[in-house]
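Lab notebook page, bench 4
Experiment: in silico fold of construct C2
Operator: M.H.
Input chain length: 459 residues
Purpose: comparison with the prior construct
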Amino acid sequence: MKELISIHDRYRFEIKLNLDESSSYKFEYYFFLPSSLNISCYTYDKFKFYSSLQRYIRYQTPEMDLYTVIDLKNSLSPLSRIIDGLNELKRSSSIFVEERVIDEMKLLGAIIRDKIRDAKADELLSILKLADESFQKIAQIINSYKYSQRIVDTFKYVDEYLNIIKIEKLSDVLEQVDINEELKRDLLSYNDKCFSYIDFNGYKKISPDNIDSFLYYRGLLKKFVSSCLFLKVQPSFDLYSHIISSIASAIAMLFAILVTIYIQKRYPFESVIFIVLVIISYVFKDRIKEFSKIFFSKIAIDYIYDRKLKIYEPVHNIKIGYIKESFSLLSKESIADDVLKIRNIDNFDIIDEDAKFEVVLKYKKIIFLKRDIINIYHTRRKNLVSILRFSIEDFLKHTDDAITNYSFYHNSIKYSFNAKRNYHLNLIVKSFKIDEKIDYKRYRIIFNRNGILKVENII
């Protein structure tokens, strides 16, 4: 199970997990935070945690060689399926066939995008020409018949997005200093053709004057093409939390009834003492209800989750699995010894252990996938990726200024520096394997008030 962690943007880091080994996965994430950030049960709860969390489940882009993709005899080629579908739509219109063609166009775009991005400088031109060849074949068929607007627009958007990817990749390669002059001339010539292609097709122009609106539009195109890979995640009814609330309410009501019966036997119904005692019992009833909810939640924390999210395959709208999640703040005593051992693995002496006052957040997740159903509907899109993005913005409220001035005298000379004041978030990922083995990973996210500075892989 391959795991990758990286900075996604200024305030978010991202963890990617390849889900290609089994049908069931269980993870525990432990966030070790400095206590100076003022994170506690009074200032931070599960609602804030989940609002900082984004999760996605998507298919990995199918691994297909571009020569295989443009081979019309290959039944797994998206290009072959697009052309077959377009020819079928000429004979008879079908919503099902139309949606299948649209899905295959997006998939073709996603495959070619990855091939262009991963291409080395010396192979880039040949990959770009293969991509052009595949889209020219589709364009010829679309221009020969009046297809629905959805078909025409899908082709246009996928084609436009790939043209942008080509320009971006060419820009990266042309900045390399080790490419020869002949290759550089060819790449610059192809780059000019890409911009001419924008003008010829009326695509959105790239210029310094419209860069903000262009980047927004590019984001839309990216989401449109990538939608063929993303699965839909929907929250389901949270039965277990309602059961706990019901049990807590029943215990509180039982207390109130028993106290009321006892008071009625001792004092007249109209007396002041009866009224005062009933009011007191009512107040205690509410406190007992809240205490019972907390008590039972802690007992059932390993069995009951905060919420359950259903995973749907969007093209066929079928349920292919679910995600269960739970969050809690841990006291030092409740942290398992194996987790503490990983946390303290790089401690050197007493200063490391005695100076680190930390708050620990625990996030637990179970992913279950119905592989048999996935295999029925997909021959190429099988392996999945779990993407978790977490925002640290709620942790920044009580950080010190990002830059601090530090000065000292040495040999009668004053030295003055502007230094960064940093904080460390230590993240331990505990993965439970199929063979009952447990795998540990530890990362250090270094940040300050201005955002994330660095992500380090400790073990």
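Observations: The chain has three domains: 3-60+314-457, 66-226, 239-299. The chain has a mean pLDDT of 85.
Next step: discuss at group meeting.
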